[in-house]
Amino acid sequence: MKKYIVITGASSGIGAAAAKAFAGRGENLILIARRAELLQSLKDEIAKISPESEVVIKICDLARSENVLTLWDELKSYELKALINSAGFGDFGLVGEQDLQKTVRMIDLNVTALAILSSLFTRDYKCKQTQLINISSVGGYFLAPGVVPYCATKFFVSAFTEGLHHELAQDKDAKMQAKVLAPAATKSEFCDVASGKRGFDYDAAFSQYHSSEQTAEFLLTLYDSDACIGEVDLASFEFKLSEPKFNYIAAAK
Questions:
Q1: Looking at the domain covering 3-242, what would its CATH class be?
Q2: Cα–Cα distance between 58 and 210 in angstroms, integer?
Q3: CA 227 to CA 181: how far, in whole Å?
Q4: CA 131, 135, 137, 142: dihedral to nearest 10 degrees?
Q5: What is the number of other CB atoms lying within 10 angstroms of the CB of residue 44?
Q6: How many Å apart are CA 24 and CA 47, to the nearest integer?
Q7: Strand 238-242 relative to strand 3-8, pairing
Q8: For residue range 123-157, what is the model confidence (pLDDT) as tens digits?
Q9: What is the pLDDT of residue 99?
Q10: 226 Cβ neighbours under 8 A, 6+ residues apart
C-alpha cells in the first residue's frame, strides 16, 4: 500500500519547499492549502522533479475547524507516514493595536487547526512508524515586542509538541515520533502577510535569514534524526538538533 507525507500550508514558503525536497526523495505527497492555482502549479513542478511521486492536492481553509475535521475524514482513505503542519502566519503590531479579526484567524490556524490535526493523527497513527513534525519558530521559545500574539501561538506549538513527545516516549505501544522545527527568519510570504504590505525587504530588515529551501533542508535533517527539536541557534545562526526544552514533570497526576 502506498504511503504519503501530508504537508499543510504547501502552497508557498517552507511548505512548498518541503514538498519539493521530499519529492526529490521519491515520496508520495498530500499537499494542503487554500490556493488551488498555486497547489496545481506545485504539483506540476513536482511531476518534473519526481515523475514517480504521486501528488494529491486538497484545497482547504484550515482556519475553520469544521474544514479540518472534514479534511481528516478525506485522509482516512490514505496510509500516512508523516504529517507536517506547516500552515500558519504571523502579524506585526503591539498588543491592543492589532487587527483582532486577523489575530483570531491566526490563532485558529496556528493553534486550533494544528492541535486538531495533531490529535487526530496521534489517535490513529501513534502505534505505527510515523512522524508528526509541527513547524514552530525560534519565536516559540522567546518573546519580542510587536510579535507577542504570534510568539504565543508558537509557544503553544512548541509546548504541545514537546509534551506529546514525552507522552509517546512513556507509551510502550507508541512508535510515532513528535518533533518541533523552530526556524529563524525565513524568506517567504511570511513578512508580507504579517506586515500587510507586499515586497517586504528581508535584506533591510534582517542581518541574517534563510531561504525557504534551506529551512526545508533543516526539516529533512530533523526528519532523518531521532531528535525532538530542530532549531536555528540565534547566536551562530546555525541549525542544530536538541532534546525538549520545557520542563516536563513525568510524575504529575
A1: alpha beta
A2: 28
A3: 10
A4: -60
A5: 10
A6: 10
A7: unpaired
A8: 999 999 999 999 999 999 999 999 999 999 999 99
A9: 94
A10: 177
Q: Spell out the domain ranges in the chain.
A: 3-242
The residue assigned the cell 506529546 is: 164
Q: What is the C-alpha separation between 117 and 203, in angstroms, rounded?
A: 35
The answer to whether 67 touches 59, Cβ cutoff 8 Å, is: no
DSSP secondary structure, 143-207, as one string:
--TT-HHHHHHHHHHHHHHHHHHHHHHH-TT---EEEEEE--SEESSHHHHHHT-SS--HHHH-S
Which residues in the chain belong to E strands, given as ranges?
Answer: 3-8, 28-33, 55-59, 79-85, 131-135, 177-182, 186-187, 210-211, 229-233, 238-242
Helix (H/G/I), strand (E/B), else coil: 80: strand
Q: Is the pTM of this model over 0.90?
A: yes
Contacts of 249 (CB under 8 A, 6+ apart): none
Residues of the chain with confidence (pLDDT) below 50 = none
Cβ(149)–Cβ(239) below 8 Å: no
Nearest-angstrom CA–CA distance, 50 and 84: 20
User: Which amino acid type is present at position 143?
Assistant: L
DSSP 3-state percent helix, strand, coil across the chain (nearest 5): 45, 20, 35
Element (H or E) spanning 105, and its range? Answer: helix 100-107
pLDDT score recorded for residue 205? 85
**Average pLDDT in the chain:** 96
Per-residue model confidence (pLDDT) at position 197: 83
Residue whose cell numbers read 519529492: 23
Kindly report, residue by residue over 189-223, the tens digit of the pLDDT. 888 898 888 888 898 989 999 999 999 999 999 99
- pLDDT for 253: 59
The H-or-E segment that residue 114 falls in is helix 114-125
